[in-house]
Design a protein that fits this description.
Helices cover 52% and strands 13% of the residues. It is α/β, with parallel strands linked by helices and 269 residues long. It has a single domain, classed as Rossmann fold, CATH 3.40.50. The structure holds NADP nicotinamide-adenine-dinucleotide phosphate (NAP).
Length: 269
């Protein structure tokens, strides 16, 4: 392994899902703050190009780890890097993830299991791999990208996203006094490749005012983690949505039941 090159090096951050969207933006903002980086995603060629642009823009050292995090052997290389004491990782961003386009019963159970894995099992395993060294060094940050959807009963994706919300809040309370901060960010709709990968037009998904930019979401998430917060919800409008969701859970279930009754009437008719 080569020696980190940055003069203002403040530690090494590992970001999953760094080829696009929020992950690429986490990598950019962490690099601009002087972190050396390890970038993880499946598309290695694209990761190399992100890495090259960060090296030349910020003079930081960037490693590339091409891995499908739902593949146990490939994921093991990432877990090993997180547990390594050589140029140890002081900042982990669990960001990689995706949704599924179809309804729960229409997807194969294997596809549903893989989604649950990337959104919950993978961040749990990577956090576990990083935590031992961070506790031994008495410092570290583990930031996991959840979703505002995780605050309400809104399907499998939302159910999987409740994991980082619950776990990060518990782990932050449990480990913070030993120097390790856990933080979950719960964004609303963000302009990334997420919806295009699902084959959904943004305009069909939500009105314009509901869309946030990745740079804003990432800046608020990094700021909240730096302040030791276990949970952050970027933007005033989504803080309001979050508060409403908490009181309106029974109404959300009624709306879900109504729309699925209307759906089944269409199917029956
Ligand atoms: N966009 C939104 O509205 C929104 C809202 C709330 C939460 N989120 C969450 O934000 C996170 C980032 O998503 P995004 O919106 O930035 O979407 P995105 O632009 O599609 O980025 C997803 C990233 O995850 C990587 N990835 C997907 N599956 C992977 C796997 N099996 N192994 C390794 N890497 C994998 C992708 O890279 P490769 O294809 O190269 O592997 C890509 O870099 C996700 O956890 C998502 O659930 C998004």
């Amino acid at each position: 392994m080569t020696t980190p090159s940055s003069a203002q090096h403040v530690g090494t951050a590992l970001v999953t899902g760094a080829t696009s969207g929020l992950g690429a933006e986490f990598a950019r903002q962490l690099a601009s703050a002087g972190h050396n980086l390890i970038l993880v995603a499946r598309d290695r060629a694209r990761l190399e190009s992100v890495a090259e642009s960060l090296r030349s823009a910020f003079g930081v050292h960037v490693e590339v780890l091409g891995a499908d995090l739902t593949n146990p052997e490939q994921r093991a290389t990432v877990e090993e890097r997180l547990a390594s004491t050589e140029h140890p990782v002081s900042y982990l961003v669990n960001n990689a993830g995706y949704g599924l386009a179809q309804e729960f019963e229409k997807n194969s159970v294997d596809d549903e299991e893989r989604m649950l894995e990337i959104l919950a099992t993978v961040p749990m395993r990577l956090s576990h791999a990083a935590l031992g060294g961070m506790l031994a060094r008495g410092s570290g940050t583990i930031l996991t990208v959840a979703s505002i959807a995780g605050g309400a009963p809104l399907g499998m994706y939302a159910a999987a996203k409740t994991w980082p919300l619950s776990f990060s809040r518990w782990a932050n309370a449990h480990y913070r006094h030993r120097g390790v901060t856990f933080s979950a960010v719960a964004p609303g709709f963000v302009r990334t490749e997420f919806h295009a990968r699902l084959g959904i037009e943004r305009s069909d998904m939500a009105p314009k005012w509901m869309w946030l930019n990745a740079d804003f979401v990432v800046r608020s998430a990094l700021r909240a983690a730096a302040r030791g917060r276990g949970l952050s919800v970027p933007s005033i409008r989504y803080k309001l949505v979050w508060a409403l969701m908490k009181v309106a859970q029974p109404l959300i279930l009624v709306a879900v039941a109504r729309s699925s009754r209307a759906e089944s009437a269409k199917v029956a008719g």
